[in-house]
Amino acid sequence: MSATHAPTAGRTAAAAGDHIELRRVKAIFVGSIGNLVEWYDFYCYAAFSLYFSSAFFPSSDPVAQSMFTAAIFALGFFIRPVGGLLFGYIGDRHGRRLALMASVLLMCGGSLLIACSPTYAAVGVWAPAILLVARLLQGLSLGGEYGSSATYLSEMATSKHRGFYSSFQYVTLIGGQLTALVVLLVLQNFLLDAAELKAWGWRIPFFIGAGLAIVALIMRSDLPETKAFQAEKQRNKDRMGGFKLLMQHPRECLIVIGLTMGGTLAFYVYTTYMQKFLKLSVGLTDAQTTAVSAGSLVFAALLQPLYGLLSDRIGRKPLLLGFAVLGTIFTVPLLTTLRHAQGPWEAFGLIACAWLIVSGYTSINAVVKAELFPASIRATGVGVPYAIAVSVFGGSAEYIALWFKQQGMESGFYWYATAVIACSLLVYLLMRDTRRHSRIDAET
Question: Is 284 strand, coil or helix?
């Protein structure tokens, strides 16, 4: 009898294992897709700012208009630590799923407000004020999204493949920006001319984003909660989340800020700022700028899981060190050469080279941060110090770059970026490899 039942029991166990793995992959997919929608909404601002800036900031100087628009873009970042604390508390106290649902709902509201905003010609200074409120709502949302999604993906993944699965956070983050650029390409080349885009067409992507956010909210409502959160809540339900508990981990918070500052600055140089750089400095046309940006983002998205998979084999620290060393050496030469690029193909090749470097950070930074903190404070611990670093170094990147350009010292920004990356290099040298010293693995 035992011999007869043994194969059946084996098949049943295998089927149960396959079902669990399928649920895991589905949850990671849904969590990632929601992340894509949020970042699409946020990046629509950067992708379409060249078209709507004159509607909110009348000026004869296009660089000045870009600076005003970039300033509001930066303010949307400065509110992100508040979002990280608020949604981190929700995620650590009430569950990762609830935090993910709440953040995407808030993003929907921000996008809808931009889509319906009146122009400066209609209501005067109230127009940029409404735009600012909308960006603050989006900033709050993203401040909570990063920590919640990084925690969720890292906790849902198995230890053996955590770098690979968590890398999809940046696949979808980049995918959100890529989707915004695809919408821009379609509108530019097939549906509207430049005058129509400036007059009213720039509102379309924000309406699309609000609709997609509702779809993401429905999808996220069916997500399973992570076992790490459920186990921690049973053990320690009265001590989960909050600023007071976060302050019991000062070393980890400082590590997150230090490892983020160089990577996030490099990321925003080659994403949001690169559109304006290609147009204002390289001299590409609008269509060429969008095509080069989109092509480089596709290349970057393909790199993320490969680097994440590599980190599961050799560890997280070698990839971070590779990014920082190469970024310190090659940022100035790359940007200097790119500024004098002869056409879109050369520009694309140089940006692709930059992504081979920057992906050492982007692919694994989320899992590194998640592995630093215990489950009781993980969403807050990942979200708040990350948001502080991004607010200071990421959100301000475009504004600082445009300021250097306006002062006639554009190359000064290249050296600034190099210095910040070099500071992160010091952190990478001193920190432990979180793959070998993971708090997630220690708890399980």
Answer: coil
